[in-house]
Amino acid sequence: MSAHEFILPDLGEGLTEAEVVAWLVQPGDEVSVDQPVVELESAKSVVQLPTPIAGVVESLGGEVGQVLHAGEVLLRLAPVGANVEGTDAAPETAPAGTAQHTDTTTAPAAAEPGIAVPTDAAAEESGAVLIGYGTRTAAASARSSSAPSRFGRRRSEGTGGPERATAEPTATSSEASEPSAPAAEAADGGEHHGLLEQGRRSPVISPIVRRLAREHGFDASELLGTGPDGLVTRGDVEAFIRELDDARRAPAETAAAPAPPAVTAPTAGGDRRVPLDRLQRAAAAHFTRSRREIPEATVWLDVDATQLLAAKRQLQEATGERFGMTALVARFVVAGLKRHPSLNASFDADRDELVLHSAVNLGLAAQTPRGLLVPVVHGAERMSLRELRDAVQARTEQAATGAFPPDALSGGTFTLNNYGTLGVDGSAAIINHPEAAMLGIGRLVQRPWVVDGELAVRTVTELTISFDHRVCDGAEAAAFLTYVAGCIERPVSLLADL
C-alpha cells in the first residue's frame, strides 16, 4: 500500500507561503482524520492545520523555521499497520522552496498554483476546512512533547519550576559546542533575568517582542520567559535590555567579562531603520491597496446609547448571561445590511460590476499580539443574538494570541470596528479591501443631551461609516447609519424585523 502526501493547501487571502512554527506529530505517530499536525505562521496569523488523511506519519515535509509554499508536501502518511521505516531517524526535509516527491501515482496534482486536489482517501474521509480537502472544522491540538518546534521541546513534567518550558538544544553538535557571547555572559554572571542560552527556543508570540529584542542584538526566543508555559513577554525582553545596559556601565575591573550583545547602531542623524516582519509587510501592502483603489467617503452620527445599556442590563438579568456591546451592535448591523445590501458588497474593478453578497460575513477589527487583524464571523445573517454573541466571543478569545483557524481571516463582506475600546470617539478608518464599507463605534461617554425639550445627562457614542463611493452614494450609507443608530437609541424597534 502506497503512502499519501498531505499537500500544503491554499491558506486564503492570497497567502502562498508559511513558516513551520512547530510539528504536533513526529515520524511513527498514528494520526486520525482532522487531527492537527503542524503549526504554521503566515503573514496574517499562526494556524494549526489538520490532516485530511488518517495514517502513520512517515516523514515531515520541512524543518521548524523553514518556509513552505502552497502546493509543497507537508506530510507523508503511510496506511495504518504499514511498517514505517526510519521513525527513529531525523525527519526527512525538503530544501527551502522545493517540494518532496515520491510515487507520482499517488501524489495529488495541483489544479492551479496553491490549490491541492485531494486524493480519493482525502475526499472520502476529510472534513477539515482546507481548500481541496473538505468542510468540517478541526479542534486545536497540544504539541507532542517530543515533536520538533520552533519553540523547542518541552521537558517532562516534574522538572518544572520556573524552567518548565526550557527548550532542549536544537542546534547541531558543532553549533552547540560554541556558546554565543550572551550565553557565555549568562554562564559567567548567572544573574540575568532573561538567561540567554544557546539552543533555547522559548515561545515568542508577539512580533513586537521579537523586533524589540532584534533591535538590541539578541534573539528573544533564547530568553527564559516568565509567561504561561515559558512565553517570552515584552517585560522579559525589556528587563534583559536593562541588564545589558547595566553591564555596559559596570566598573572597569569587570571589562574582562564577555561583552553583551551589540545594540544596533543608529545612523549619523540618530535615526534607526527597523525592517518589517511578514505580517507588517502584508498589512502595509493591504492598506496601500485599499487607499489606492477605493474612493472612500465617511459620514458620522452621535447616538444616545442610554436605552441600549438599559436593555443590555435587562437582557442579562432575564437570561443570567452576559451580552457585550459589540455583539449587540453586530446584531443591529446584520439587520441593517439586510435592508441596505449594497453595503454588504464589493466592487469588481476588472469587470466593472457590483458584487452583492448573499451571506453577511462580519469582520471584527481586532488588535492582536501580531498586529491589527480582522477575523470573520461567517454566516452572521443566520445567527440568533445568542449565537452571534458566542461567535464574537470566540473570535475575541482567539485574538488574545493572534492564532486563528485557517478560514477565520478570509471571506469578510463588512467590518465592524469597535475602536471605542481604545478610548477614541471616531476615526476615518481604512476600508478592509475588497469590502465596501466599515462601521466604527466610538467610546461611550456621558454628555449633556436634550430629551423631550429638557437637558439631561445621557450616555452617548459616535458611529462612523466609511464606504466605497463606487458601490453606493451618501444617501444609502446615511440611511444604513441612521437605521443602526435608531436601533441603538430604541432597541425595542428591532423587534419589528425579527
Low-confidence stretches: 86-127, 134-138, 150-193, 251-263
Q: What number is the mean pLDDT?
A: 75
Report helical residue fraction: 10-25%
What proportion of the residues form beta strands (DSSP E)? Answer: 15-25%
Gross morphology is globular
CATH level 3 topology of the largest domain: Chloramphenicol Acetyltransferase
* Number of helical elements: 10
DSSP E strands, number:
21
- List the domain count as a whole number: 3
Summarize the biggest pleated sheet: 7 strands, mixed
CATH architecture of the largest domain: 2-Layer Sandwich
What's the CATH class label of the largest domain?
Alpha Beta
Rg on CA atoms, Å: 26 Å
Distance between the termini: 56 Å
Helix-strand makeup class: alpha+beta
Q: CATH homologous superfamily of the largest domain - what is it?
A: Chloramphenicol acetyltransferase-like domain
Organism: Agromyces indicus
Region (Disordered): 86-107, 138-202, 251-272
EC number: 2.3.1.-
Family: Belongs to the 2-oxoacid dehydrogenase family.
Description:
The protein has 498 residues and is of the alpha+beta class. It folds into 3 domains: 4-125, OB fold (Dihydrolipoamide Acetyltransferase, E2P) (Beta Barrel), CATH 2.40.50.100; 175-254, no CATH class; 279-497, Chloramphenicol acetyltransferase-like domain (Chloramphenicol Acetyltransferase). The protein contains 10 helices and 21 strands. It has helices spanning 120-125, 173-176, 181-189, 207-215, 234-248, 278-293, 306-319, 325-339, 385-399, 474-489, and strands spanning 4-7, 17-23, 30-31, 36-41, 46-50, 55-60, 67-69, 73-78, 110-112, 115-116, 296-304, 345-348, 353-356, 362-364, 366-368, 371-373, 376-377, 414-417, 437-441, 445-451, 454-468. The strands form 6 sheets. Strands 11, 14, 17, 18, 19, 20 and 21 form a 7-stranded mixed beta sheet that branches. A hairpin with a 4-residue loop joins strand 4 (36-41) and strand 5 (46-50). Helix 4 (207-215) packs parallel to helix 5 (234-248). The protein is globular. The chain starts with a strand and ends in a 9-residue tail after the last helix. Residues 204-241 form the Peripheral subunit-binding (PSBD) domain. Residues 95-107, 138-150, 167-187 have a biased composition (Low complexity). Residues 86-107, 138-202, 251-272 are annotated as: Disordered. GO terms for molecular function: acyltransferase activity.
